[in-house]
Amino acid sequence: MDSNNCDFSPMKKHIEDGIHAVIDQLQSNLNVLGNENFCVLGSLEDVKEHLIEIELMAASFYLNCYLSSFTDTYKDLSTSAQQLSQHRHGALIVVERLDSVEPIIQKGTQIGALVTPKLLESIFYPGNPLHDGAVLVRGNELVSAANVLPLTSKNIGGKKLGTRHRAALGISERCDALAIVVSEETGKISFALNGKLYPINNTKPINFGGPQ
Q1: What string of DSSP letters covers 23-38?
Q2: Could you tell me the domains of the chain?
Q3: Distance of alpha carbon 103 from alpha carbon 105, whole angstroms
Q4: Is the Cα dihedral 77, 82, 83, 84 positive or negative?
Q5: Number of neighbouring beta carbons within 10 Å of residue 39
Q6: CA dihedral 52, 11, 170, 176 (to 10 degrees)
Q7: Which position among 14, 70, 82, 156 has the lowest Cβ density within 10 Å, counted as fewest Cβ atoms?
Q8: pTM of the model
Q9: Higher model confidence: residue 42 or residue 103?
């Protein structure tokens, strides 16, 4: 998918404003760098924090873009992820895109129902027999649950990943599917694509409102 065609405003505008603000901060630091009366270390720390905020916001923006061409239910996926995050219910949602994931996964329980937040939240409710595996979304259909995914062997930042995150990366290394992960331990939301894991800014609801 060509992300240049994405127009999820005002999210894109917020990212642009954030980048311009960082550029202005860096230029201000550059202007006073030779002045011994000013120390830019504190300001550079602020720049680093702003860059992290922009990165998280950009991850939300690109998640919108990567999903919107393959499922009309991306708003429902967002709602589900946010609700699961708030309750710290671990979840793993695989959205099939162009490549078929059928030859890669160990198939679980057939569902064959329209994607809805209530359905996803009930599947990943602790104690549900299906909550440990991954659900597979194809188009607007929740195809199956309790699917077993291949696990990656890589570490991120020297840290050992949990099983859900390793599974999300594992499926994304073998096909173009996108995997959304909710951490049971922290409630944080991430998505895996093309063998990389991206944290999402979920301090407030993700804007999946569509182009405006």
Answers
A1: HHHHHHHHHHTT-TT-
A2: 3-67 (1.10.287), 71-199 (3.40.1700.10)
A3: 6
A4: positive
A5: 11
A6: -140
A7: 156
A8: 0.74
A9: 103
